[in-house]
Amino acid sequence: MRFSICVPNFNYAAYLKLTLESVLRQTGAAFEICVADNNSSDGSQALIKRFASENAHIKCAFNATNLGFSDNLLAVSQMAAGDWHILLSADDIMAEGTLNFYNDFIDTVGPGKKFAFHSSCDKIDSEGTKIGFLGPRNKVWRTTDIDANLSSTMGCDVYRVDSKEMLRRSLSTFYGPFNFAAACYSASSYIQAGGYTGGRMYNPDKWFHWRLLTVVDEVFFLDKPAFQYRWHSQNQAAIQQKSQALKYLVDEYRNAIEVTPEMLSFAQMDTTVLQRNFIEEVIVKQAFAAIKNGRRKEASRVLYFGLATFPVQSNRSKLFWTMKGLLLLGPIGTWAAKIIRPQF
Fold first, then answer.
1. Across the chain, where does the E strand assignment appear?
2. What are residue 122's DSSP bridge partners?
3. Is residue 223 domain-shared with residue 258, that is, in the same domain?
4. What is the mean pLDDT of the segment spanning 151-169?
5. What per-residue confidence (pLDDT) applies to 16?
6. Domain residues for 333?
7. Final residue belonging to a domain, choices 194, 212, 232
8. How far is CA 130 from CA 26, 121, 134, in A?
9. 337, 288 in Cβ contact below 8 A?
10. Which residues pair with 330 in a beta bridge?
């Protein structure tokens, strides 16, 4: 079995049919679809059972209770029997020909290589209308990373980065290296990296991907939209925004304190720099966005969270104190935030 498409679901019956059908239309590579339902109450379970009864490609499991987001990712991944895993949200779409495209890329890189990769995604709304595009994040993927030979072979820009360098970039920016739906990695790498453990509330994929970087040699980005990422009021990113950032910040703080000495050594970084990165790439950015949009109470909570977590690095950061100043200026600070461009 070449691919395991792992679909974690919770109350996405409105989208799940389209998601499963988009995978079932794939040709050119052997695949299975693993679906783990997280105790849905919206008709998802009946839909999954019907699809599983009609398609030999599909196997399913139903959690007796809601395990939470990260544990359901772990549950569905543990069902996988394929050589390569793709974690596909139950509201996202796999574009036509994606598995064939991914299969060709794996064969092009060659056997015996330890690598992971992902692609760009079209961004769609709840009705399936394209509203944007998710390409390479320029702080972790750079135009200088483009491999001319691979790009010519694959018919699109292919970015290639040593995994140590990508981990350094990721820890410097607190970005994830891969798009959630589009990431593809070998089953052996998944096991070696420890899977979706760690108990993150919003970004278990980022924490896993950081650890994945320590067990592969190279990572790639294929600049071709192989998936459609759906943005709607109930998806994970939207819920994260509604939470006013604090649960997200808890996840990011845990990332900062749970990065192991081995990971830091691998990325050629020390704890002090990592803490500073957390303050300036997470706390400062979240506070600035809140100030700019007039959410002063949220900005205050974010800044105090940063001060409580790493007081030394907060007090040493000019950007942190700039945010404190903007906050103290009240409406004038909000006006100023809309016209200044901080260097982060």
1. 3-9, 31-37, 58-62, 84-87, 93-94, 115-124, 130-134, 158-162, 184-186, 218-230
2. 133, 228
3. no
4. 98
5. 97
6. 240-337
7. 232
8. 21, 10, 11
9. yes
10. none
User: Is residue 241 predicted with pLDDT exceeding 80?
Assistant: no
Both tokens assigned to 136:
């390479």
Q: Give the pairing of strands 184-186 and 218-230.
A: unpaired
Q: For residue 46, give the CATH number of its domain.
A: 3.90.550.10
* Percent of the chain residues topping a pLDDT of 90: 87
Band (pLDDT 50/70/90 cuts) for residue 201 is confident
Give the model confidence (pLDDT) of 59-93 as tens digits.
999 999 999 999 999 999 999 999 999 999 999 99
Residue type, position 322, single letter: T
Strand partners, 118: 221
Q: Which long-range contacts (CB under 8 A, 24 or more apart) does 148-157 make?
A: 150/108, 150/220, 153/108, 154/101, 154/104, 154/105, 154/108, 154/222, 154/224, 155/224, 156/222, 156/223, 156/224, 157/222, 157/223
Last residue of a domain, one of 214, 232, 250: 232
Same domain, 120 and 178: yes
Residues 228 and 244 in one domain: no
User: Is the pLDDT at 129 greater than 60, yes or no?
Assistant: yes
Q: Are residues 213 and 250 in the same domain?
A: no
266, 167 Cβ separation under 8 angstroms: yes
Contact indicator for 53, 220 with CB cutoff of 8 Å: no
Q: With pLDDT > 70 as the criterion, what percentage of the chain qualifies?
A: 95
pLDDT tens readout for residues 212-232: 999 999 999 999 999 999 987
305 and 184, same domain (yes or no): no
pLDDT digits (tens, 9 = 90+) for 2-36: 999 999 999 999 999 999 999 999 998 999 999 99
Same domain, 221 and 294: no
**Do 182 and 301 have their domain in common?**
no
Q: How many domains does the chain have?
A: 2
Contacts of 171 (CB under 8 A, 6+ apart): 210, 259, 263, 264, 267, 269, 274, 277
343 falls within a domain: no
Residue closest to 182 by CA, chosen among 251, 133, 113 = 133
For residues 284 and 344, is the Cβ–Cβ distance under 8 A? yes
pTM (two decimals): 0.94
